[in-house]
Amino acid sequence: MRGRSVTVIAMYQAQPEPRLGCAISKRVGNAVVRNRIRRLIRETFRRLKTQLLPVDFVVVAHPAAAALARAGLETLSAELGPALIEAGKKAEMRGPRR
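The chain above was modelled as a monomer; its predicted structure follows.
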C-alpha cells in the first residue's frame, strides 16, 4: 500500500500477533527527524495493534513523512492507520508464503 508519505508492505506469518519494522532513509531528514517519525509510527502501530491481523508489517517512510511528523501524531496516524489495515487484509488474503 503506497501513500504520499509512507509505503506499507505486509506479509502473512504464523504468529499470534502483528509485528512492525521501519525503514527510514537519510533522505527523509536528519537523525532527530528520523527518530521522531519512527516513534510516531510505533505509537500508531501500538494503538491499532488490536485491530490488525497477525502479519508482518514494514513501513517505509518517504521524505513527505517529515512534514507529517512535524504536524503531529494524529496527522501521521490518519494516513498510516488505514494503510496498515488495508495492507494486512491483502496479506491475509494471499496467505502463507510458499
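The first strand starts at residue 6 and ends at 12.
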